[in-house]
Design brief:
Blueprint lengths: L6 E3 L9 E6 L3 H9 L3 E5 L9 H13 L3 E3 L5 H15 L13
Helix pairs in contact: 2-3
């Protein structure tokens, strides 16, 4: 993440110029290798679920942590993917949390 903007693309969207395509559900090593090269990395994930797919969202969090910046996902998954990308960026310190709460029990 860091220097690159994050994108959530619909299925069939072309690979943006200058973005390395890691393929569909690539290995973590492949994504880390492409991210280490310094460019933006596209990961394509597939799901038939009509609502947010927990497995897909977990995969997005790992790929985002490793440096993937563009995700091609089915439309029902797009909102959940955006939330996951915001969460990962907040954990990494690249953006402030959306909401901060303090335990006052």
């Amino acid at each position: 993440m860091g220097l690159h903007e994050q994108w959530v693309l619909p299925p069939g969207a072309p690979v943006p110029q200058g973005v390395a395509d890691a393929g569909t559900a690539p290995t973590a090593a492949r994504v880390a290798e492409l991210a280490a090269a310094g460019g933006a990395v596209l990961v394509t994930l597939v799901s038939d679920a009509p609502e947010p797919d927990p497995g897909l969202l977990a995969a997005v969090s790992v790929y985002a942590w490793l440096g993937a910046t563009a995700f091609r996902v089915p439309e029902p998954q797009a909102d959940g993917v955006r939330q996951v990308l915001d969460m990962v960026a907040s954990i990494q310190g690249a953006r402030p949390p959306s909401v901060t709460r303090r335990g006052l029990a």
